[in-house]
């Protein structure tokens, strides 16, 4: 696949959400996006569910009717406001929000909306809701990529990326060199005092994605307290150190997995290093080592 550009300046965010306060969170998203653009960023990624907060939708004391009321379509007023920023600043902005569709307004999706220099692009609905998320959000069913001058950019949300490598490999096979992970990874839950989810699920799974698929992964997480949960920050962009077939190694290019501070990280990436050799013709074997026709048979058998 031919790409117009290899060099991209990317921003990721440790986002401190104000639980249930859409206006405050929108202002933060807008202000940080403008600040990122002024520092030369081409794209900025915000976390999962950062428009209202993650706990707002998991809190069973908040009636579902209220959750439906605050949920918008992806071309609603919140998206329109951030779309204006994206167009004025010439930057791609991706942020997490609850979404409902006009044709089925009683369902809520855990979504990521994508806005660009030309305006609204689209949204991705989380395919794999995690645990009790299934009590409030419907399952998405479609992968989502959006075209840019750096080639197609792909999205998975949180659990999509930690336990389901099939999705990332699909995206890379379709040409993605940059994969986005808006996430809400908890450092500890009330009365547990454990970094269980963060230590077990965050960096190791993303690093495996780089090792197995030679792709850059940009991850933005919430930080600090939401309503009850304490989020771990650690936003970063990781990717391959070289493009050599036998020297796959993970490098952190932007951010810091150990940084808890509410802040934005910006850096420049060379996407030409994202080369999945297994999808190219093997000079000794005559075709790619990656064999989707075989995997299709296997999945058809268990599906």
Automatic annotation (TrEMBL):
Domain of life: Bacteria
Gene3D superfamilies the record matches: Carbon-nitrogen hydrolase
Coiled-coil portions: none
Name of the protein in its database record: Carbon-nitrogen hydrolase family protein
Cited PROSITE patterns: CN_HYDROLASE (PS50263)
A Pfam family the protein falls into: CN_hydrolase
One term of GO molecular function: hydrolase activity, acting on carbon-nitrogen (but not peptide) bonds, in linear amides
Organism: Candidatus Allocopromorpha excrementigallinarum
Domain CN hydrolase: 8-271
Keywords linked to the UniProt accession: Hydrolase
């Amino acid at each position: 696949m031919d790409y117009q550009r290899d060099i991209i300046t990317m921003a990721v965010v440790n986002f401190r959400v104000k639980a249930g306060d859409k206006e405050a969170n929108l202002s933060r998203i807008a202000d940080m996006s403008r600040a990122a653009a002024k520092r030369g960023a081409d794209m900025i990624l915000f976390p999962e569910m950062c428009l209202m907060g993650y706990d707002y939708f998991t809190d069973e004391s908040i009636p579902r009717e209220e959750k439906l009321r605050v949920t918008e379509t992806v071309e609603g007023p919140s998206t329109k406001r951030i779309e204006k920023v994206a167009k004025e600043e010439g930057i791609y902005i991706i942020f997490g929000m609850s979404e409902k569709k006009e044709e089925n307004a009683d369902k809520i999706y855990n979504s990521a909306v994508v806005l660009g220099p030309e305006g609204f692009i689209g949204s991705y609905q989380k395919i794999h809701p995690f645990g009790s998320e299934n009590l409030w959000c419907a399952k998405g069913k479609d992968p989502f990529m959006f075209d840019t001058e750096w080639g197609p950019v792909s999205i998975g949300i949180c659990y999509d990326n930690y336990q389901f490598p099939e999705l990332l490999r699909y995206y890379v096979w379709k040409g993605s060199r940059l994969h986005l992970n808006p996430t809400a990874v908890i450092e500890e839950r009330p009365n547990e005092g454990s970094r269980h989810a963060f230590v077990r699920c965050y960096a190791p799974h993303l690093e495996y994605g780089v090792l197995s698929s030679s792709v850059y992964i940009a991850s933005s997480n919430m930080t600090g307290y939401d309503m009850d949960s304490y989020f771990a920050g650690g936003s970063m962009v990781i990717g391959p150190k070289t493009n050599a077939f036998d020297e796959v190694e993970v490098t952190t290019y932007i951010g810091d997995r150990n940084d808890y501070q509410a802040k934005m990280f910006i850096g420049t990436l060379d996407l030409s290093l994202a080369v999945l050799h297994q999808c190219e013709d093997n000079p000794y074997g005559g075709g790619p080592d990656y064999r989707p026709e075989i995997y299709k048979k296997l999945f058809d058998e268990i599906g």
